[in-house]
Structures are given as C-alpha cells and as structure tokens.
Design goal:
By secondary structure, the chain is mainly β. 11% of the residues lie in helices and 48% in strands. The protein has one helix and ten strands; from the N terminus they run H-E-E-E-E-E-E-E-E-E-E.
C-alpha cells in the first residue's frame, strides 16, 4: 500500500509540474507596439488601449506614443472591440458622436482624418489602418498607414 501511495504522489507531481500557465501565450510588454507612417516618415512606439469615454462613444481609444519625440502621437478613437471587421473613419475635426476617427500630432502639427480610410481589426487587440489626414492650420493632405497591438 505504501508503494501505491508513493506512485500516486509521484504521478500527481509529474502531472502538475507539466501543466503550463495560460500566461505563456499572452504578449509581453515589448509586444505592445504600434507604428504609423506619415509623409514617408515612420513613427514607432508604445501602443495603449483604454475604454472610450464620453457621450455616444464606444469601444476603445488606442494611442501610439512614439519613441522619437513625446510630441509625436496618434490616437484612434471609438475603435470597435471585436476581434475582426473593418470600420470607416469619419472627419476627425468634426468628430461626430459615436464615430471612429483619428487625430495625429506629428512634430507639433495637428492633423485629423478625412472621411474615408479604415481600420481593420486583425485580432482581439491588434489592428491595421489606412487613412488620409489634413491640418486645419497648414495646407496639404497626407496618407497615413499603420498597425499595432495594444495592451
């Protein structure tokens, strides 16, 4: 009977030590990055998602804080939380309630999306996007593309 108990104890220890943690497949903080390309220049940095706030807003607001300068930031607002699907951008300067839009601060020049362009969810917390932005201060339009995985 002692052998049976010892065998069961050893077998139990082997089973429990072989079980992995569910955390092994989760992204590490280094994987929470985003990038966007504007006027031929690529900006890369930490990508953070937070619940959208405000009346009529939904989903998540995603921001990419670049490592090149603290003033270079992209914010995607009202991004759906679904793991897949595509949604069109609206006018970022008018920001109609309950619509998806983007605001960019690149080298202290604020730009916002024109209607059109889109963001595509490629996973629960990952995305790609393409849009056209314009500044109300400077003339000119720019195509912006990007991607990221947010925490």
């Amino acid at each position: 009977m002692n052998r049976a108990k010892i065998f069961f104890l050893v077998l139990s220890l082997l089973v429990f030590t072989q079980c992995g943690s569910d955390d092994e497949n989760e992204p590490t903080p280094d994987e929470f990055t985003g990038e966007f390309t504007l006027a031929g220049k690529t900006f890369t940095g930490l990508c953070i998602g937070s619940p959208a706030s405000g009346i009529g807003n939904f989903g998540v607001d995603i921001s990419i804080h670049t490592t090149t300068a603290s003033t270079n930031t992209l914010v995607l607002s009202n991004v759906p939380t679904a793991s897949s699907g595509t949604v069109a951008f609206s006018d970022g300067w008018r920001q109609p309630s309950g619509t998806t839009f983007a605001i960019i601060n690149a080298d202290n020049i604020f730009m916002a999306t024109k209607p059109g362009g889109s963001i595509t969810k490629t996973g629960a917390k990952s995305f790609t996007f393409t849009c056209t932005v314009y500044s109300i201060v400077e003339s000119g339009e720019y195509t912006v593309t990007g991607k990221g995985t947010y925490q």
